[in-house]
Each structure stands twice: as C-alpha cells, then as structure tokens.
Amino acid sequence: MTSLEEAETEETVTCLHLTFYHPCQHEKMMFRCLNFCKREQVRADETAKFGRDSNVCRYSLVDTRVSRVQFSLQFYRKLHTSEHCFEIKNLSKKTKLTVNQTELGYLNKTDLPWKCIICFGDYQILAEIQEGESMDYFETHLHLSEAPILQERCLPCLPSLQPIPENGISPSSLLSQGKSPTEIDENEL
C-alpha cells in the first residue's frame, strides 16, 4: 500500500468570505486589526464576534461608533441534514443591524443567506458562504473593498435605494398614481 492509499480522506471546509467597506476607511483605519492576508480557522463551537472590544471580539473594528460587541456569527448544522449554516445575531443595544432587507434589533437573530450584505452605521459587509463538509471548524477569509458594496453588487440594504430617471420622476410614483410609464420623444421635452 502506498501512503496515498493510507492517507485519510480530505474533507472540504466551509468558508465565510467577508468583504468590508466603510467610506472613511483610509482616514480612520478602522480595519487595521483585521487580517486580510489569509484564511483563518474558527472552531465550530466558537462564536465569531465582531465589535470594538478586542478582548471579547475575534474581529475587532477600531471605531468608537461601533458597539463593544456589535454582532456575532454562529456556525451550525441544520437538523436532520448535512447542510451547514451561519446564524447572525445583533448584540448592539444602540445600532440596528440589517441583513439584506431584514432589520435586526438588539438580540434578534436570523440565518445568514448564502450571499448577503450586512449593514450597520456606515459599515457594509458582503458575506458569501462557500460550502464545505467539515463539522469541526470553518474558515473566514476577509477582504477589503475600495468601492461601496451596495453600488458594486447591486444588492441594496435599503429598499429606497432605486435609480431615479433624469426627468426626476420615479416609475414607482407613476404606478402609485395609477398611470403607466409612457415613452416620450426627447424632442418633445
């Protein structure tokens, strides 16, 4: 028998890719404590906490407007399946957390969709789950975005962020008045 035949079967690892953006990241350097260089292993029974307190939070944000513990992510396996998921819980008493268009108040929690945008204050975090098989741990891979994620990915956190036509009239306002949009020749304006 060769060593390849005797080797244990490798299992894939669930990886949570998190892309961070803040409009003042270059001036305030609030992401300086995050490791953007490599994947990081997190034990499955640990809760990954994000916030200002580096003694409590695994992922520390250097910003006085961020709560001591802003939110947490818990890795779990769905009942009667082999599917792995993440649960996100808002741990800030002062700041609401938005996951796509779902607003979470203090201690509210929800399952993290496989691709979503997490927002609080001016922070935007694109979360993407890469599925794996391992039940012992998962990995996080942090990225930094130079451009706003909401514009870049077209996944609005707020339902009110819609493009407004050059004439300033929103198609939704026409529909709410019972009128349907009509095409107008630019020479008629």
Automatic annotation (TrEMBL):
GO annotations of cellular component type: cytoplasm
CDD domains per the UniProt record, alphabetical: FHA_TIFA
InterPro entries found in the cross-reference section: FHA_dom, SMAD_FHA_dom_sf, TIFA
Transmembrane parts of this sequence: none
SUPFAM superfamilies: SMAD/FHA domain
Location of region: Disordered: 168-189
Localization per record: Cytoplasm
Domain called FHA: residue spans: 49-121
Pfam families, sorted: FHA
Record-level GO BP terms: innate immune response; positive regulation of canonical NF-kappaB signal transduction
Keywords annotated in UniProt: Cytoplasm, Immunity, Innate immunity
Domain of life: Eukaryota
Residue stretches of biased makeup (Polar residues): 169-180
Protein name, UniProt field: TRAF-interacting protein with FHA domain-containing protein A
Organism in which the protein naturally occurs: Pardalotus punctatus (spotted pardalote)
Lineage, highest ranks first: Eukaryota, Metazoa, Chordata, Craniata, Vertebrata
